Structures are given as C-alpha cells and as structure tokens.
Description:
73% of the residues lie in helices and 0% in strands. It is mostly helical. Helix 4 runs antiparallel to helix 23.
Amino acid sequence: MDEETPMLHVQHPKRRSTPLPWRQFGIILFLQLAEPLTSQVISPLAPQLIRDIGVTHGDETKVGFYVGLLHSLFFAAQALTVLHWSRISDRIGRKPVLLAGLFGLSLSMYCFGLSKTFMGLVLSRALSGALNGNIGVTKSMMAEITDETNLAHAYAYTPIAWSSGSTLGPLIGGFLFRPADRFPDVFGHVKFLREYPYFLACAIPATFTVIAWTITFLFLKETLSNTISFRQLIESKFNRRRFEVAALESPKSSPETLATSEDGESRPLPLRALLIPRVLIAAGNYAALSTIDIAFRAVQPLFYATPIELGGLGLDPPLIGNILAVYGTLSGLFQILFFASLHDRFGSKAVYTAAVSCGIPLVLTYPIVNTLARAYGVNWAVWCVIGMQISCSVLLNLGFSCVFIYIAAASPNRGCLGATNGLAQVLVSIMRSIGPASAASMFSLSIAAPAHAWFVYCYLLVVVVIGIGASLLLPRKLWGN
C-alpha cells in the first residue's frame, strides 16, 4: 500500500466520532460572522456613497472604479498583515489576536460610517484589513478543538457564518443607509444621521462586532497550550537564543508544555520551514478555489443586472438580491446536511475535485441563460437554468471545507498551524484583491462589442481549469506529521 491509497480501503476498525465541543465551537462560529457582516454591508450603499462624497465629480463611469477600489483595499491590506498575525498567534495565543482583530473591525466600521472624504474611506478599509488576522486564526482554533474523527463535521458548519453574514450584510446596508431621507418619520429629526447618513448602516455590524469581542473575552478559552506574553515575544526578537532557553526552563511551563516543546510538536518554526511542497500545494489550491469563487461572485450580479440585448438578463436589484439570498441559504444548509457524509464516503480529494469541476457547467449556464432570454424572454426555462446555476455554485462551495482540512493536515507541526493558515490566507487575499477587478473588467470588455462576447466566459473557464489542475496535486490520503 502506497501513500496514495485511500484511507477508506485500510482495514482498521472505524473510530467513533468525538462529540464536538459545542460551547467553544459555537463561539468561534459566532465571531466568524463579524467579518462577512462588516465586509458585505457596504456593497449596496457603496455606489451612492461614492457619488455623495463627490470624488467622481459627477462622472458616473468612474463610480465602479472607486467602488471596486474600496472592496480590494481590505484584501490588499489583509495580504500584508495576515501572516504576521497568524505567526504571532502561534506565540502569544489565539485569543489575544482574535480580540485585536475584532477591535480593528469594529473601529474601522465606525470610522467608515463617519467618513466624509474618499481618503477617510480608504483609511477605514485599510485599517480593517490590516488589523484583522482572524480568518487564519479561527481555522487554527477549529483544528485544535477537533480531531480526525470530527474535523469534517466541524467544517460542515463553517458556511453558516459566511452565508448568514453575506445575506444579512447587504440587507442591513441597503435598508439603513440614509435613514433620515428614507424614513423621515422615524429618523428625520435626528441631526446626527442627517450629517452622517451612512453611519447607522455601518454602526449595526460594528456594534455586533463589539458584542462578539465581549463574548470572546469572557467565554472563549485559549486553545494553544504553550503561550508566552507579548513582552516576551518582543524580547525574543532581540535575543532569540536566550529566549528559547529561558522558555524551556521557565517554572511557569507545565509538564504538558515541556513535553510538547521537547518533541517539537508545539514549537513554532521559522517561515522558511513552511515553504515545503505540501503547504504550498494546500495553500495554492485554496488560492485557486478562492479565485474561482470571487470571479463568479463578481460576474454574477453584473450578468443579472445587464440588459438582455447586451448579454445579461436584465433583472432588477430586489430580484437579484433574492437570488443571492436563496443561494446563500441553500449553500449553508447543503453543507450542514451532506458535507460530512460525502467526505466520509468519498474522501477529501474526490469531493474537492468534483466541487472545483462544477465550475465548468457553472460557466456554461451564463451564455445559455442569455440565449434563452433573447429567444423567449425570462420564462420558466431561464429559471430552470438559473436553478442549475445555483446548484453548481452550492456544490462548488463544498471545496472550501475540503481545502481547510488539507491546510490543517499540511502544517509541519501543531505549533505552525497558525502560520500555515496565515500563509494560505496571504495568497487568498492577494487573489481576492485582484480577482473582482479582473473578472468585472473582462465582463465589461465582453459586452462592449459582439466580437468580444465570449471573452469573460473563456476567462472563467481558464480559471476553473487551473483550479482543476491544482487539485490533481492533492494526495488522496491526508498528510501526516
């Protein structure tokens, strides 16, 4: 039997699944809701906000550029700092880094709502991305409170936070922006909301993040056993060798900590120790899948909103919002109900490869929908294909749970789990900072002239094929430390 032999074929008694620690796991899911909520709340209000602050000087063609810049700034700033936050969490613990990230999210959203200049918006979004290292840290915590028998079951629940935040965020932003103008009987007399018309929409997720910070501070338990203080971390940068000797001889170290330190399982390694094939393969697949996902998310609402004669579907914003809400709800439910059983039956690689491959029929549904709409209007056949499109998107999202499992298994040891997730998140943040702009630009080029109509679909197919190729590098059996 070689290393590629599936685990399901090994004749060992099946281990009983360990129950999930629901109290701690529930807190992690709850605080994960803060990021999609704060990032998506600006989506419906950003175009009008850009117009109101006057940065475009009345040029409507520039609105999309500045809106895209705001969305990309978060991921660009996150790409520069997320690895550092993740590596710090391997030293001082997960909880302090989570608290810092939640504080940064809350502060940046309050600042965003109070901004009256484009530079203020830029600084707020950059601050949000730079202070937020929670994505990789929460994945590390999930891996640390689970084992191989219940890890897939735990990751099946992760879409709840993202689906809920991605659904509630736009609803809050679209409903509460400029409340004094839209609801004069309720908010018309509030001078503050007239002066800062976007503050209320931003304050709701910001206040939720404050609540998440409080719950994390009071109830979340640290999952890393051998932590050091921030002061010790700073001192170690000046005298690393002296610090490592002192840490091993410290009377505060527990026997468990000493044992794990001696065998190297819990000791963080240098960054170069992470640049090994299995870490790069897992991180590369995460980046490839994220590129596919963000490209489709950028093109989908544009396609729905573009007139039929230009290559889209011509739907109005409320209907588009309903379609995206249905997709988010179905994605979360499908993951909860079916991911764990599919993973146990077929394994990580088979599920991941199948999920990424769903990108091909997903691309093909776009020109089919437009062709049907041109011939027959938006009839039952169009809605059937849209249903297929949503189904393919739901299946595509199964890949994220699989790749999270691969990243956890790729870590050289338990002490590098945070840094490994951070390295993967750097690649993903880079791709998410350039993915929406590139996909939207290809769509604009496609509708500019009939001869270019297929450019965006060719672009999406290339992205999917690259993702499928990357999936072939993953082993059928998870790596072991």
